[in-house]
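just leaving the lab so this will be short. what follows is a protein written twice so to speak, once as letters and once as structure tokens for the fold. can you read through it and tell me how you think this chain folds. thanks a lot i owe you, the record is right below.

___
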Amino acid sequence: MNVKRFTARTSREALQLVKQAFGEDAVVLSTRPCAEGVEMLAMPPESVRQLERFTPGLPARTAVAAAVQSAARPQAQPLAQLPAHEEAAAMSTLSFQDYVRERMLKRRQAEITRPAQPQAPALPAAEMPLRAAAPMQVAAQPQAPVPQAQLPVHQAQLPPAPPPASLAESLYTGQVPLEAVPVLQTPLAQPPAVNVVLPEISDMAADLRREQMEMLNELRSMRGAIEQRFDAMAYVDQLQRSPTQAALTQRLLDCGFSPVLIRKLCQGLPAETAEPLAWAAGVLQRNLRSAEAEVPLEDEGGVYALIGSTGVGKTTTTAKLAAACATRHGPGQLGLVTLDAYRVGAHEQLRTYGRILGVPVHTAHDRASLEDLLALLGGKKMVIIDTAGMAQRDERTRELLDMLVHPSIRRLLVVNAASQSETIDDVMLAWRAAECRGVILSKLDEAVKLAPALDALIRHRLRVVGVANGQRVPEDWHRLSATALVQRALRAGGAAAYRMQTDDVNLVFSNAGRSDSAQAML
């Protein structure tokens, strides 16, 4: 019998090793956890057939079932009267187990058919050794004499055995049958079930769950890549069949709009449109939210905090907005607060603007001092807070945003219009632009292409409350309409090296994936 031991990290890997060694019909004998993971004992199917061939007298499963059914008959044949080949087979382990099972069934059947015997009183623990040492008198009941000729051969030739000294010895010699032993009728209390979870089994389950999650994530990513590829191929094929869409796509890419927005626009382009660029401009204007029709910030009043990355022009924009409020309502209705204590001389710039306007500038170093200043300036028409410039990925950005959490403070995000589209997206997400009152586009005079900034505003559904296109205070502060901003963005600019050709358009859209934010857009 060829039994081999296999060890692996998981049961699945161990079963694979068994199949590789013995085939699909391998017989697994046992499985248990070990230091390497899982230990599995297995043997080939040929070993089972060899075992059956070398033990021809081995009783089948049907014989065991027949023994169970015949246990209720009192004239069952004793083991000593079995034929010679069955007696030899009874010496094997499996036959001995069947014999024990048959004896237990006979005993249980005898207990059911026999009337209940009176139970012996329980003995104290001190009398148990003395009583156990006494000879057992259970088998002393009178029995009918058995003729010598009816006894089996091997029993008739044996001399009479001496009386046993104990119940255990009587059972061993066979003089006291199992049916004569008193049976305890009171059922024993079952111990409570305890769920024991082995550390190895829990680790195996955790590894299996982790492998399943990794496989599920790989399938999802593969599905997304396939959908992306087919979607891009379908759109490129559509551009090749429609020259109007191809020309509009090339023009919008030259302006700097994102492929996601361009694809959404071109999918809704009517086939009978004579001026596709004018149609696209109208769609962009309707989706760009502007504050031109609303009340200006200096007339609305309130507490505003200007936030944004380093070098976007927050202090200059604060001075422009403060000059507009002081011109409209007077210096007495304006309050200026600075939180920029990081840069050397940062608050001196705002103090210079304050002396020109005739407005004192207060400095807040922490949240408590900021709340005190807000309570002091509560009677002002407008209070403007200038904050420190930080990179969008700086850890102090979150601390600054938490400091500005106040019921009366409304935040204005200042965005550099000359930044790259990916940088603008990252800034809007890091500074929580969705929670702001609006967005201020600064440095319009430095931006070669305005389309990346407008593209981000449309996709994130943000409002433009004002634009700054220079360093002059307050002349370079404007409130432009959506039409003016879109018309300026559609002006083709930039060097010829950055302009798209027809082949470049296909290359861009073959790698452009779908965006979930674009599905709910427009």
About this structure: The longest strand covers residues 27-34. The longest helix spans residues 199-241. Residues 57-93, 118-159, 164-173, 513-522 have pLDDT under 50 and may be disordered.
